[in-house]
Amino acid sequence: MKVTVNRKAHFNAAHRLYNCEWSDSRNADVFGKCANPNYHGHNYELIVAVTGEIHPDTGFVMDMKILKKIIREEIEDYFDHKNLNEEVPEFKTLNPTAENISVVIWNKLRSKIDLKSELSVTLYETPRNFVIYKGE
Amino acid sequence: MKVTVNRKAHFNAAHRLYNCEWSDSRNADVFGKCANPNYHGHNYELIVAVTGEIHPDTGFVMDMKILKKIIREEIEDYFDHKNLNEEVPEFKTLNPTAENISVVIWNKLRSKIDLKSELSVTLYETPRNFVIYKGE
Amino acid sequence: MKVTVNRKAHFNAAHRLYNCEWSDSRNADVFGKCANPNYHGHNYELIVAVTGEIHPDTGFVMDMKILKKIIREEIEDYFDHKNLNEEVPEFKTLNPTAENISVVIWNKLRSKIDLKSELSVTLYETPRNFVIYKGE
Amino acid sequence: MKVTVNRKAHFNAAHRLYNCEWSDSRNADVFGKCANPNYHGHNYELIVAVTGEIHPDTGFVMDMKILKKIIREEIEDYFDHKNLNEEVPEFKTLNPTAENISVVIWNKLRSKIDLKSELSVTLYETPRNFVIYKGE
Amino acid sequence: MKVTVNRKAHFNAAHRLYNCEWSDSRNADVFGKCANPNYHGHNYELIVAVTGEIHPDTGFVMDMKILKKIIREEIEDYFDHKNLNEEVPEFKTLNPTAENISVVIWNKLRSKIDLKSELSVTLYETPRNFVIYKGE
Amino acid sequence: MKVTVNRKAHFNAAHRLYNCEWSDSRNADVFGKCANPNYHGHNYELIVAVTGEIHPDTGFVMDMKILKKIIREEIEDYFDHKNLNEEVPEFKTLNPTAENISVVIWNKLRSKIDLKSELSVTLYETPRNFVIYKGE
After folding, report:
1. Residue F6 sits at the chain C interface (C-beta within 8 Å)
2. What are the residues whose beta carbons fall under 8 Å from the beta carbon of D25, sequence distance 6 or more?
3. Cross-chain Cβ contact C34/B126 below 8 Å
4. What number is the ipTM of this complex?
5. C-beta neighbour count of F70 within 10 angstroms
6. Residue ranges of the domains in chain A?
7. Is E32 close to C65, i.e. CB distance below 8 A?
8. What is this structure's pTM?
9. Which of F55, F81, F86, F99 is catalytic?
10. Architecture of the domain defined by E2-133
11. How far, in Å, CA of E128 to CA of C3, rounded?
12. What DSSP state is assigned to residue A33?
């Protein structure tokens, strides 16, 4: 019996969309106001989903207290109240779109969660825009 | 790396459930108060999901500004503040259930979005009833 | 000790905005697409708030089971799946704006709830538009 | 054309996490405050998803009035305002984790819904923790 | 310039509605399934509102980090994962209705927050039932 | 009959909390990670409430299309995708706390809305922190 357990988390951060190999005017053309060099920001809402067998002793796929702790240490402490472009090494050259942030989060979590479980990450950039990455 | 990008939208419309090949009494029997000939209505909440590869230059699967514009032109302008039975050609003979509306929306969007991407439509008819169509 | 108890409810209905003393073109000018003669509709979300003293025997301001029953009988059964303009007598000549609907709801509930309690009605016409009426 | 129809429901219940083959101290170690012998409780939010072909006569995958009735009779009436450990037979020996509750709900619904349709259950234990079971 | 700052919090608890001066059958008559002697439970969502002048040096009415800490220590640690009737002294004889819980919370917070500020407590017992207490 | 009409809006922005008359270390002591010199950001959700008499001809307190336009021009276009400290003149010396932002928004809207109506502004900085300013 495979069940998916989901845990919500959140962090606030500043960013700008920017391809460092493009001119400023091309960045402005493609990314519009999201390319503002002074940054803007978001309340990112995150859902981490882990799919696996229910352990018969605990009734858990994964102890949510442990999942909550992993998300806090690996993701919230790492991204919260940060400037993604300036302060998060992964985005020194990678454009911090919601798509790319979801991949970075998935990669950071993958190494901390039992490889027998499947992992999926849903990231809300705004209440109307969100992305899903499943490592495929 | 395949990521799903999701965009929420909404429209308000009137409709009634009605099979034009049935008698009024059979419509009333099957559809209950939803068959009211004077119509009722809903705030439809829509989530459009596009799954594809992240483009390395932009970090986007699809520019959300473009997706937002397609949804506005193809769906919101077409359905918003309309009587679905009376004013939307697709529902002249097709019963405007949430299921059928989701298929009509999917078909209208499919022709506007890169065929290499998968498309999925989630439509909330009320906060407690919603449907999902993936073109399968 | 005065406490406010709140109960949420909902109903779906069709309506159009229309002043029956105006020409069709003036209605269209003022109310735009909301004046569509074929109607549109909404999922109305309602919050009924009753403020009064806590009864020492029950710990209740008002039994929520009774409030829920009053709302169902007076409001949900009366408005749900209806065409407000055509089927609700109060709106034969009164324009069914959210403001006017909230006043009609308040008046219908006021006669059913202990006059020693204050009554307030919040009505969401859409997730982004809502009104509040307190009988003042 | 396969569409998924979803219906939300809810129930309130008390429970404690407890493996009856373990000592109290091991239960306390593993389940923390969730093992409180005096119980705690939740507002469980449930989403039942049924995937099948749209019936051409009705435009329905499944009549939502019938799905709502099945959920009320099989799930809400069975779990609501109950102590899961003490009053729900399935949890006399099975630990009432969200994972196990979702499997019990799925099994109870499976026998009531057309076997040609796929069934999925999403259960929110809190606004931040939820599980999904698809019978796989 | 008086501004209201609001902070959301939550806790999960079991309770039953019970007037200890009444017979069991009268409790069952008045409180229905809420009187279940085996308890049921809720996810309580809490909003604490503090109204006061903006301090010109900080731009704060009250530092939200401090308000968050007071709520955690006084309310969340005190109520979370508890049986309100059995484990919270205030409810040994007081019926733990939402109304009475909101008054107990308000009284506990009042002594910790600057008396020059007004205090209001909103408590959701379910997504559809909530109460507000302002100490009046 | 006085009714309050409410309209929701939103904008995304970067900011840092900073008193320009204090040393960096005092700013860090008081504002913690909110003082990060590289900025962080939020999805600000705004509710604008206008209270007045229902106009008998329209059934409106205020045409929501006009209120929506005022909010877009005065607030969304002014704050959206901006760095509040660097790009919004009001915050060159004023600390952009939620409290101060709500006062700036209220002042900007006050001059555009009929003075016979009362005006209130609710601003969510995060889903758990929000402020209310009524011009008092």
Report:
1. yes
2. none
3. no
4. 0.96
5. 18
6. 2-133
7. yes
8. 0.97
9. F81
10. 2-Layer Sandwich (3.30)
11. 16
12. G
